Amino acid sequence: MKKLLVLGVGNTLLIDEGIGVHAIYEFWKERDDWDEALVDFVDGGTFTQDIFYLFEAYENILVLDIVRAGKEPGAIFSLEEDQLRKEEKQMLSLHDIDLLDSLGMAQMRGHRPYLRVIGIEPKKIDWGTELTPELKKAFPAFLEVTRRHIRKILATSDQPV
Fold first, then answer.
1. What is the number of other CB atoms lying within 10 angstroms of the CB of residue 101?
2. How far apart are CA 142 and CA 9, in angstroms?
């Protein structure tokens, strides 16, 4: 079982909605910087619950996605699994709802990895393939927050953090 799956989700045809996938493209460029025996970077696109089988091979999942929380565009969030359920005012994207369902299905099959989300407040969700200027500006910080989480997870013992 690998330590970590970094899963970028979103639709790259809907401007800011695709930022998680754009981030995965950047991490693919850094493959030599990461131990492939410990971590995988996967473009999850706009997956549905049928991706749950993938979760069974990992101790931890780090999801990169948009999070609508009514903050300024480009605001970055680091959310633990319990925050995804407890904060009713937290407006999660549809992908996060599917994620929780997928985790439940993986648990029914015998293994539930620990989930974290690195999210970013979008400016605009509409047809287009370029990020808005606000998210382009915040993108390097989004990647760096993700790198810090990856390093922390990979540096821990065999227990999920």
1. 14
2. 14
Quote the strand ranges of the chain, DSSP E: 2-9, 39-45, 58-68, 76-80, 91-92, 114-120
Residue 161: inside a domain, yes or no? no
Domain count of the chain?
1
Task: Report the candidate in 14, 13, 6, 20 with the shortest Cα–Cα distance to residue 66.
Answer: 20
Q: How far apart are CA 58 and CA 70, in angstroms?
A: 32
DSSP letter for 129, please.
S
Is residue 160 one of the residues assigned to a domain? no
Q: Is 131 helix (H, G, I), strand (E, B) or coil?
A: coil
Q: Of 95, 125, 67, whose CA–CA distance to 10 is shortest?
A: 95
Residue 18 token pair = 């695709």
Domain that holds residue 9: 2-155
Q: Is the pTM of this model over 0.85?
A: yes
Question: How many Å apart are CA 71 and CA 86, to the nearest integer?
Answer: 18
Does 24 score more than 60 pLDDT?
yes
